[in-house]
Design goal:
The complex is a heterodimer of chains A (about 150) and B (about 400).
Chain A (H helix, E strand, L loop, with lengths): L18 E2 L4 E2 L8 E7 L5 E2 L14 E5 L3 E10 L10 E8 L3 E7 L11 E11 L5 E8 L5
Parallel strand pairs in A: 1-10
Antiparallel strand pairs in A: 2-3, 3-4, 3-5, 6-7, 6-9, 7-8, 9-10
Chain B lengths: L6 E8 L9 H15 L10 E5 L7 H6 L10 E4 L5 H14 L5 E8 L18 H4 L4 H16 L3 H14 L14 H5 L3 E3 L2 E2 L9 E8 L1 H7 L5 E10 L13 H14 L8 E3 L5 H10 L8 H6 L10 E2 L4 H5 L6 H13 L14 E8 L9 E8 L2
Parallel strand pairs in B: 2-3, 2-4, 9-10, 9-11
Antiparallel strand pairs in B: 1-7, 1-8, 4-7, 5-6, 8-12, 11-12
The structure holds zinc ion.
Chain lengths: ~150, ~400
């Protein structure tokens, strides 16, 4: 048996994440609009999101990052009233189909009952949940189109 | 999976499904003992292999259930997990053992206790390592997305969806093992608490505890045990869900469609010949979509099939004659085995008060399993059973 005792405080490395996830979402520091990062397999050309460790088609392990379209079509949407443990309700999620032939599952900003199937929506950044330390986790979400 | 020799069901067991203070192992033993006794088996050594389905109650669940029945030591006990498909998969494994000639008599058990372990007032979610879970996914919501799209494309209403609950609860009215049963109106279903728009509480299966068990064996074993009405397993199919991140039609279900097609081909029995089905009606919308996915009717005709009464007594195929998951609740590892048990009782004309007439000749079961992003379901297990 070791005599070593655990430190009373958790070391800082154990802090939970507050951003999900750098290889999925780019939020440029110069203030230009955020975008999702697709990955094109250098072996067979398959484009995927999220990033996979190996390409399921050719087992390639090298990818080119491709910025994905910021607008897509809302394939389906629902308002959640009984959600995951610890998540505040209601919240909205849906499937967004991008022109790159990719489907993204994401939360949507706004009020329940405000979205329709086949509506155009736009990428935004916001809080998706609260982490173990009680801090908000920021990630991609979608919202109504911002009028030009 | 091609059956290399004929496989039969000797006996089945199931506990009542509801909230139980008894843990999964107690429930599993109750169901197993009923199935073993019904199979005229009088000593534990006669069973040569066992498969035990469970999803959330920890490790070595099978050994925990079976040790008090004297079944540990002389045979392999293999624990099977694939979320809601675990029980169906356990039956498949037992059938495979007998079909290949590896054993002559095998046991499948599915058992689960959720209520002793789960926080009330929360919804099931896949593992937190899954990207959709991180973004707030819950199973109710994923089915709500299917419902929303189906309504968008077909003009179906929430009242249409509610008819599924009304029908299945009516089927269950006199079934002692069903939990939620009897008369409920469309209005009561529609006006119950909203869970995930458009799914209301009464359109979702309850979080229940329970167990089922099935004894399968060779033709010679049926004779040896003196089984009066052996039920033949005409086909058993397990598939994994295709993975991709491209758009897919969620008013269909790729894995249920391909699993059904494989089962029809394997069994030589077509969808129009199936008399009763227990399917994965965890939510109203699912049953409606599966009429189409299983080929009971054409694509886009599910709603009409329901409205015409084709899925209840007197119709083409009585769907959810035990009451389905909407009446039983859904202890996720138990349901797949309990479905088989319920179908065997129907084929044997043992369902006093809720027997389908005329007594069905062919029954089919179906459980999908697992919310895994990029798949419609991680797994699907289906069985075809017949009286002859
Ligand atoms: Zn590739």
């Amino acid at each position: 048996m070791s005599d070593e005792k655990k430190p009373a405080k958790q070391p800082k490395e154990d802090a939970d994440i507050t951003f999900y996830h750098p290889e999925l979402l780019e939020v440029p520091e110069d203030g230009s609009p955020p975008f999702l990062k697709g990955y094109r397999c250098m072996g067979c050309g398959q484009l995927d999101f999220p990033k996979l460790s190996t390409c399921p088609t050719c087992w390639g392990e090298q990818f080119d990052m491709v910025p994905l379209s910021r607008r897509g079509k809302l394939y389906s949407v629902t308002d959640i009233y009984i959600g995951q443990a610890g998540m505040e309700t209601p919240y909205i999620f849906g499937y967004i189909d991008l022109p790159e032939d990719l489907r993204i599952f994401a939360q949507l900003e706004g009020e329940p009952q405000s979205y329709q199937c086949d509506e155009e929506v736009e990428l935004t950044v916001g809080t998706i949940r609260i982490n173990r330390d009680g801090l908000p986790i920021t990630s991609y979400k979608f919202s109504k189109l911002v009028p030009a | 999976m091609k059956l290399l020799r004929d496989v039969f069901i000797a006996g089945v067991g199931e506990t009542p499904f509801r909230r139980h203070k008894a843990d999964f192992d107690v429930l599993g033993r109750m169901a197993a003992l009923e199935a073993l006794r019904q199979s005229n088996i009088d000593r534990p050594q006669m069973i040569q292999s066992a498969y035990v389905g469970n999803a959330t109650n920890g490790t070595v669940v099978g050994q925990t259930i079976l040790k008090q029945l004297g079944m540990c030591g002389h045979m392999p006990i293999i624990n099977v997990e694939s979320a809601c498909s675990a029980g169906g998969m356990a039956v498949h494994c037992a059938v495979k053992d007998v079909s290949t000639g590896l054993v002559d008599l095998a046991l499948a058990v599915g058992a689960e206790n959720h209520s002793l372990y789960m926080q009330r007032g929360t919804a099931f979610a896949p593992a937190m390592s899954d990207i959709e879970t991180m973004h707030g996914a819950v199973m109710t919501g994923k089915y709500a997305l299917r419902a929303k799209r189906y309504m968008h494309e077909t003009g179906a209403t929430v009242e249409d969806l509610a008819m599924i609950t009304v029908k299945n609860r009516r089927h269950a009215k006199h079934n002692p093992n069903a939990w939620f049963k009897g008369d409920i109106s469309i209005e009561e279903v529609v006006n119950s608490r909203l869970v995930a728009d458009p799914l209301t509480l009464q359109q979702c299966c309850g979080i229940a505890d329970g167990a089922g068990a099935v004894v399968v064996g060779s033709r010679e074993m049926m004779d040896k045990l003196g089984i009066a009405q052996p039920i033949r397993v005409r086909g058993s199919v397990v598939q994994s869900g295709p993975y991709h991140n491209q758009p897919r039609d969620i008013t269909g279900d790729d894995i249920t469609e391909s699993c059904s097609a494989a089962l029809y081909e394997l069994s030589g029995i077509g969808p129009k010949e199936v008399d009763i089905i227990e399917l994965h009606d965890a939510f109203t919308i699912a049953e409606l979509l599966y009429y189409e996915c299983m080929g009971l009717c054409g694509k886009g005709e599910g709603l009409q099939f329901l409205r015409d009464g084709q899925s209840t007594y007197g119709g083409q195929c009585v769907v959810s004659p035990r009451g389905g998951m909407l009446s039983y609740g859904h202890p996720i590892g138990a349901s797949g085995v309990a479905q088989v048990a319920a179908c065997v009782k129907q084929l044997r004309n043992q369902c006093d008060g809720y027997q389908v007439e005329p007594v069905p000749r062919v029954a089919m079961t179906h459980v999908t399993g697992g919310g895994l992003s990029g798949t419609e379901h991680a797994a699907c297990s289906m069985h075809m059973l017949s009286r002859d």
